[in-house]
Design a protein that fits this description.
By secondary structure, the protein is of the alpha+beta class. Helix content is 32%, strand content 11%.
Length: 257
């Protein structure tokens, strides 16, 4: 039986006021007033307000949709379309939601038109948010990132953070993965709509840690890939200083410094 995402959206939005202190229109106003430059910045800010990644991504999609619920036809009658305020209002205090198990899953992409009845929601629009384009000299990663669906912002965040510890890293697109070189290949990110997997070439002499575990590399990663360790990524909080240090160590090991 197909998941009723309209009902899930209604449950999320109907409980928004009670669980956070703000209803949908108020959250749309606050997001607009923040004037954050990129869609990923909105998600990161919402995460700091206490929202889970799936909830933050869902609210960002609604804001990008002009403040209208994604499943507008099935939304509650009292959820009116957002209109930006003429004057900047003071944000109202709220209590962020920290635990809503019913929504603890990646938000679904925009639905197809009503006449279509896809078994799964289609991927989000391929247009990337400003600033998400790879740095000059890298390949266009948009086709691969689109396959990550709701995890696309997480993949983009990982790439941005890796550049902070290895500025010379380049990111090369493959069918369903992104190779990382500096100039030799030291990591591969495999992309699906369910999870991201980061494979690192740390060498067989390293036992791993509580961050990454030894894992054989799947086939199809490319001749240059010799990853020995792996981490499943589903949350931006995993991309911390410890992980970035391990990524930098893998790059240094493969490239002799």
């Amino acid at each position: 039986m197909a998941t009723d995402y309209g009902e899930k959206e209604r449950e999320f939005l109907d409980g928004l006021k009670e669980s956070t202190g703000r209803d949908l229109a108020e959250w749309m106003t606050v997001i607009t007033e923040k004037n954050l430059p990129h869609r990923n910045d909105i998600i990161d800010w919402l995460r700091h307000q206490g929202f889970m990644f799936s909830q933050a991504s869902w609210l960002e999609r609604i804001h990008h949709n002009g403040g209208r619920p994604i499943y507008a036809d099935g939304a509650s009658a009292n959820l009116m379309a957002f209109r930006p305020p003429r004057e900047r209002a003071e944000p109202k205090p709220g209590i962020p939601a920290n635990d809503q198990a019913a929504l603890d899953e990646p938000p679904q992409p925009m639905p197809a038109p009503a006449r279509a009845a896809p078994r799964e929601p289609p991927p989000p629009p391929p247009a990337a948010a400003p600033g998400s384009t790879p740095a000059e000299g890298n390949e266009d990663l948009t086709p691969v990132l689109a396959k990550a669906k709701a995890y696309r912002p997480l993949a983009q965040h990982l790439i941005t953070q890796i550049k902070t510890v290895r500025p010379d890293a380049r990111f090369l697109a493959r069918a369903a993965s992104i190779a990382m070189t500096a100039p030799e290949e030291f990591a591969v990110l495999t992309v699906t709509g369910k999870e991201l997997r980061l494979y690192l070439a740390l060498g067989d002499d390293e036992d791993g840690s509580d961050v990454v575990k030894k894992a054989p590399a799947p086939s199809g990663l490319g001749k240059g890939a010799k990853p020995t360790h792996m981490l499943v990524l589903t949350d931006a909080r995993q991309i911390d200083r410890r992980l970035l240090d391990i990524v930098a160590r893998a790059a240094a090991k493969v490239n002799n410094g």
